[in-house]
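Quick illustration, no need to memorize.
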Amino acid sequence: MVIPIFCSAQQLSDSPKLLYRDTLRIAPTISLGWFKTFTDEQMEHYSMAQWHAMVYAEVNEKVKWSNGGAHGYSQVLQLEPKAGGYCKHVRTVVFAFDQRVAQTHAACHTYWNNYWSWYNIE
């Protein structure tokens, strides 16, 4: 396992915004603008790229997806040890509706209850 140089533990512990808990399959939502949403298939591809990046991808590896005019990738930027578990920082970039949207989240795993939680770190 590669553990890169990472930011201070304070970055996540100060006041992270909890987005989701107990599941990794619900990817963080991404805002594409008024009345602009993914189709169900596009959302599935987007969500599965997030899930695959978290479970299987090495640090800096990009997990790409594409469906019906929308595409993008998820990339694990770093792995951060955390008391009772660890967090993976994920950069997601989406190209849809003639725009580029990027965001960074952390997915944190807790060993004792086997939960995953998404946090907004931007």
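The beta strands are 17-21, 62-67, 70-82, 85-96, 99-110, 115-120.
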